[in-house]
Amino acid sequence: MLPDDKSADTTLPPTRLIDGKAFAQRLRHDLREQALALHAQAGVLPTLAVVMVGDDPASGVYVRSKIRATEQAGMRSVSHHLPGHTSEAELLGLIATLNANPLVHGILVQLPLPPQIRRDAVLDGIAPEKDVDGFHVVNAGRLAVGRRDGFIPCTPMGCLMLLKSVRPVLAGLQAVVIGCSNIVGRPMARLLQQEGCTVTMTHLRTRDVAAEARRADIIVVAAGRAGLVRGDWVKPGAIVIDVGINRVETPDGARIVGDVAFDEACPHAGAITPVPGGVGPMTIACLLQNTLQAARNTVSAP
Ligand SMILES: Nc1nc(=O)c2c([nH]1)NC[C@@H]1CN(c3ccc(C(=O)N[C@@H](CCC(=O)O)C(=O)O)cc3)C=[N+]21
After folding, report:
1. What is the pTM of this model?
2. CB-ligand 1 contact for 113 (6 Å cutoff)
3. Which ipTM score applies to this complex?
């Protein structure tokens, strides 16, 4: 055997950049065809109600892009913008009206909410069958016990789709989920477990997060800390999914970065999602998928 062949044997395949933006575009295109077909065949126009309280500029940007994406996907959106001083009772009143409206299939209340409003009271006020965010305690419970009849939160669902696009079978892999919020980390861990992964969840009290990460074939990080995952945290060939969205100031102005030190991690990773252009666009596409599902469910119900 030539020495050249031997060195070729030990070379790792090149890192694959996981293009969430392109994946999401394809998904949204497919959803549009399905939405138009549902409208034509059953007369149901999938409709998403988007509720925003207050004037957080970042929330405003997200809400507008959700509304645009909904309409591009052949669905309808109705938006409700309430003032920042809205009371919890007033918000619950609007949600009750939307729950009772048969023309509304999905309800999304943009987070975060102002301090006078209890988040969990609001999320649990949404009818579970319209809870396209998958944040209602009933939908969280369904996922926790492995039932498939609830809505799955959009960001973890998008992460799983991206993972499976590079590795269709996840069974037996070691996965670490860094950050265990109710909206990303916890549901992500449950999905990975259902796929057959051995899952470690790390959190603020974890003694050595880096050591947990180094063992993992899959790293999903949703911690909200720019550059948290360093190059030497990534086992050679591991798949890295970066959920972080952090605004950082650079000499050239503000920039959005993830929770992974991307340039460091890239040479180690087998596949990695960029920020922007990775998980973010998938979140919106999955929201549309859940909205279509909610609309379909009203047709097949007896
Ligand atoms: N009830 C509720 N449901 C949510 O799903 C929800 C929420 N509240 N509150 C805020 C977060 C954040 N979120 C994002 C959606 C899309 C992108 C996205 O498409 N990002 C692009 C662009 C990033 C940029 O340049 O600004 C990207 O990553 O490529 C990001 C973030 C949904 N959220």
Report:
1. 0.94
2. no
3. 0.94
